[in-house]
Amino acid sequence: MSQPPGQLTFVAPRRAKPARHLADLSMAERRAAVTELGEKAFRADQLSRHYFERLTTDVQAMTDLPAASREKLAALLPPLLTSVRELATDRGTTRKTLWRLFDGALVESVLMRYPDRVTMCVSSQAGCGMNCPFCATGQAGLTRNMSTAEIVEQVVAGARALAAGEVPGGPARVSNVVFMGMGEPLANYKQVIGAVRRLVEPAPHGLGISARGVTVSTVGLVPAIGKLADEGLPVTLALSLHAPDDELRDTLVPINTRWKVSEVLDAAWAYAAKTKRRVSIEYALIKDINDQEWRADLLGKLVKNKLVHVNLIPLNPTPGSKWTASRPEDERAFVRRLEFHGVPVTVRDTRGREIDGACGQLAAAE
């Protein structure tokens, strides 16, 4: 197409992508990739077993592979994450790691060990474009989407630490994964679904974590919630609601100006009906902002008699922010009002507060 004389056309630079990794690919794609490297297709199964079962990327330790093949196959196991900083609390059973990606972008993951389970909280984007004002990540803006393998590697890194006995309590396995770290998971839909499949597929295809142990959060991207319901993956949907009325939610969760509370909840109920999975309503309690008893009543009326659980989150304040956690008495009153409506409700365990537990705090400090 011609352009007026003297007018320049701006072409945005193409952002470099992470190197292709085994975890980006389905097993069929891995076998094709191995064949392209001049190896027999079954080597993909061996390589997958080393990564997903033995949790190693050191090809020299893969003695069942011919020595001549190892260097070629190493191309499918490029380094993805570099640990920049690690903080621990709860006697070492809560560990937060700041990772640097290949292009310098920073993301965070958290490992939380409980007596009956180990949960990994993972990031799906470097930064976030949802712009929620009380969230450290949201205020940082979006740098880029993460690849499927970059997401999976956070869980594999946690699994390695557990297997090596680095977390007090002896060797263990990751049993739960929550997509509640940096980013809006459903805004990086294809890569997140790929990561979920790698997490739940049995070895050597993936890590073999139960789909019921995986939770995908969203601020309410309605079309993507519908797509997720059709994936055949019975993961838990966590809806970050934070306000039951449009007037306040428009401010706290700006995407609400696109999809209102009623539309978002309708999508959540449709998800529950299709998957038979209880929806988790995430609600950060913010002092004098959304913690009034009348709002608890409104929330209770909206969600009662649904396949739902309300998860109240005492806000983890970020340095210099005007937003802070509710008073204990207001939190208790909020819980009582929800219970009055017969709504199952819990207050989230506030682990990690002393190690900048809120998503984005470590990255912002760095």
UniProtKB/TrEMBL annotation:
Top-level EC class: transferase
Localization (cell): Cytoplasm
Principal subcellular localization: cytoplasm
Binding residue positions for [4Fe-4S] cluster: 128, 132, 135
Domain Radical SAM core: 114-353
Cofactor note: Binds 1 [4Fe-4S] cluster. The cluster is coordinated with 3 cysteines and an exchangeable S-adenosyl-L-methionine.
Molecular function per GO: 4 iron, 4 sulfur cluster binding; metal ion binding; rRNA (adenine(2503)-C2-)-methyltransferase activity; rRNA binding; tRNA (adenine(37)-C2)-methyltransferase activity; tRNA binding
Active site positions: 108, 359
SUPFAM superfamilies per UniProt: Radical SAM enzymes
Catalytic activity as recorded in UniProt: adenosine(37) in tRNA + 2 reduced [2Fe-2S]-[ferredoxin] + 2 S-adenosyl-L-methionine = 2-methyladenosine(37) in tRNA + 5'-deoxyadenosine + L-methionine + 2 oxidized [2Fe-2S]-[ferredoxin] + S-adenosyl-L-homocysteine; adenosine(2503) in 23S rRNA + 2 reduced [2Fe-2S]-[ferredoxin] + 2 S-adenosyl-L-methionine = 2-methyladenosine(2503) in 23S rRNA + 5'-deoxyadenosine + L-methionine + 2 oxidized [2Fe-2S]-[ferredoxin] + S-adenosyl-L-homocysteine
Residues that hold S-adenosyl-L-methionine according to the record: 183-184, 217, 240-242, 316
Needed co-factor(s): [4Fe-4S] cluster
Functional summary from the UniProt entry: Specifically methylates position 2 of adenine 2503 in 23S rRNA and position 2 of adenine 37 in tRNAs.
Protein family according to the UniProt entry: Belongs to the radical SAM superfamily. RlmN family.
Additional detail: Reaction proceeds by a ping-pong mechanism involving intermediate methylation of a conserved cysteine residue.
Protein name: Probable dual-specificity RNA methyltransferase RlmN
Organism: [Actinomadura] parvosata subsp. kistnae
